[in-house]
Design a protein that fits this description.
- The chain has 386 residues and is an alpha+beta fold.
- It contains 10 helices and 20 strands.
- α2 crosses α5.
- It comes from Nonomuraea typhae.
- Keywords: Cytoplasm, Methyltransferase, S-adenosyl-L-methionine, Transferase.
Length: 386
C-alpha cells in the first residue's frame, strides 16, 4: 500500500507541481481506507471513483481525482492552527488531508446532506486514525454556524452560487475555494472577501458532482434517446433533437483550428459557455455521436448549440456539424466561436478573473465582461490580460 501511495504522489508531483505540504499529506493518508472493498491499484490511480448513484443511475457522489484535490488544497493554503469547514464530506478522505494540513492546533468540520455518506465518512475517518474530524449531517448551503468563524472554507462539490452563509462564517482574511458553475462549466476558484464582493485570487480547471439541497443549480440532464444524454446549463426548450441528429448532417463547417483535448474541454468550453446562450453538451455511446473531442471507451462527449429541434456539434477535428432545419445556421455560429476563441489566444481557466458581487447591486460591470446573475451574487467574468 505504501509503495502504491508513494507512486501516486510521485506522479502528481511530476505532473502538476503540487506543494511539499500537500504532497506530504497525500503520502500520509491511506486512501484505500476510505474506499474499502476496492482493489488497491484502482484506489491509487489518479482517477475519480464513483461511490453513489441516484435511482436513475446518475452519479451523485465520488472520491475526487487526486490531482484536482491536490490543486484545490494548494489553492486553499491551509496553515497550522486554521479552522476549516468542508462542504461535502464524501468518503472523508479530503477531510483527513485537511486535518493534517491544519495540525497542530487546527480544527476541521465537514458537512454532508446525505446521512449515508455522513455515517460512512465517520467510519472511514475513525479507521484511518482521524476521529478529531467533526462530521455533521446538514445542507452545506447553510455552512455550519456552530463552529464558525472559519479561516478556510472549501466545497468539494460543485456549487452554483456563493452562499451568503459562507461569507458570514468566514473569518477576516479568510479564503473560500470551490468548483463554481459558470453556465454549466466548472472551475475551481479561490476567493477572498472584499467590500461587497468575492474576488478570485486563482482559478484552475475542475469538475465535480453538483450540490444537492437548497443550493442546487438549474442544470438539466435529459435523454435524447437511449444511450445519449443532453446537458443544459439551465432549463430551456430545445425541441426534439433526435429526428435531426439521427439524420444526415446538413452542414460541415471546418475551422482549421487544432487544439489538444484539454484546451477544448476547458478553454473552449469556458468560452462557449460564457459567449453562447444556447450552448450545451452531448454525451453518449460512440454509435450515436460523430467522432468527438472527447473519445473514451464506450463514450463520446462534445459541445454544441441547440435550438428549435436543430443542433450543431463540435467534431474531433474542430469542425462544426449541423443537423436539422436550422443546422447550417447553428454550425456557422459554432464555428465562429471556435475561430474567435483561437484568435483571442485560446484563453483557459487560469486566465479567468471572477468577481461575485453581493446582491442587490447597483455597480455597473466593466465593458466587455461576461455577467451571470445568480441567486445571491452577480458574477462578473473577464480575462486577466484583457
Amino acid at each position: 500500500m505504501r509503495q502504491l501511495r508513494e507512486s501516486m504522489v510521485a506522479r502528481l508531483t511530476a505532473g502538476t507541481g503540487i506543494s511539499a505540504r500537500v504532497a506530504g499529506a497525500l503520502r500520509t493518508v491511506p486512501r484505500h481506507l476510505f474506499l474499502p472493498g476496492l482493489e488497491p491499484r484502482e484506489v491509487y490511480r489518479d482517477e475519480p471513483i464513483i461511490t453513489k448513484r441516484d435511482e436513475l443511475g446518475i452519479p451523485i457522489s465520488s472520491s475526487s481525482q487526486p490531482a484536482i484535490m491536490a490543486a484545490m488544497l494548494d489553492q486553499l493554503d491551509v496553515a497550522p492552527g486554521h479552522r476549516v469547514l468542508e462542504i461535502g464530506a464524501g468518503t472523508g478522505y479530503n477531510a483527513a488531508l485537511l486535518s493534517l494540513l491544519a495540525a497542530p492546533g487546527g480544527t476541521v468540520v465537514t458537512v454532508d446532506i446525505d446521512p449515508d455518506l455522513v455515517r460512512q465518512a465517520r467510519e472511514h475517518l475513525a479507521a484511518a486514525g482521524h476521529p478529531e474530524v467533526r462530521v455533521e449531517c446538514g445542507d452545506g448551503a447553510a455552512g455550519f454556524p456552530g463552529a464558525a468563524p472559519y479561516d478556510r472554507i472549501i466545497a468539494t462539490v460543485g456549487v452554483w452560487d456563493l452562499e451568503p452563509a459562507w461569507a458570514a462564517q468566514l473569518a477576516p482574511g479568510g479564503r473560500f475555494v470551490g468548483p463554481l458553475d459558470l453556465r454549466g462549466v466548472q472551475v475551481s476558484a479561490a476567493f477572498e472577501r472584499r467590500p461587497g464582493r468575492w474576488e478570485s485570487v486563482s482559478v484552475v480547471p475542475a469538475g465535480f458532482m453538483r450540490m444537492r439541497g437548497t443550493a442546487a443549480g438549474p442544470e438539466r440532464i435529459r435523454p435524447i434517446t437511449e444511450g445519449l444524454m443532453l446537458f443544459l446549463p439551465e432549463h430551456r426548450e430545445v425541441g426534439d433533437l433526435w429526428p435531426a441528429l439521427s439524420g444526415r448532417p446538413v452542414a460541415d463547417v471546418p475551422t482549421g483550428v487544432r487544439a489538444a483535448r484539454g484546451e477544448i474541454s476547458v478553454g473552449f468550453g469556458l468560452w462557449l459557455a460564457t459567449h453562447e446562450p444556447s450552448w450545451c453538451t452531448f454525451t453518449g455511446e460512440p454509435r450515436l455521436l460523430p467522432p468527438a473531442p472527447v473519445n473514451a471507451p464506450g463514450m463520446r462527449m462534445t459541445q454544441g448549440v441547440a435550438e428549435d429541434g436543430s443542433l450543431a456539434l463540435l467534431t474531433a477535428d474542430l469542425s462544426a456539424l449541423g443537423f436539422g432545419p436550422r443546422g447550417a445556421e447553428l454550425a456557422d455560429r459554432l464555428a465562429a466561436h471556435v475561430t474567435a476563441w483561437h484568435e483571442a489566444g485560446r484563453p483557459g481557466a487560469e486566465g479567468l478573473r471572477v468577481q461575485a458581487w453581493d446582491l442587490p447591486l447597483t455597480t455597473r460591470p466593466p465593458a466587455g465582461a461576461t455577467v451571470i446573475d445568480k441567486r445571491a451574487t452577480r458574477l462578473v467574468i473577464g480575462y486577466r490580460d484583457a
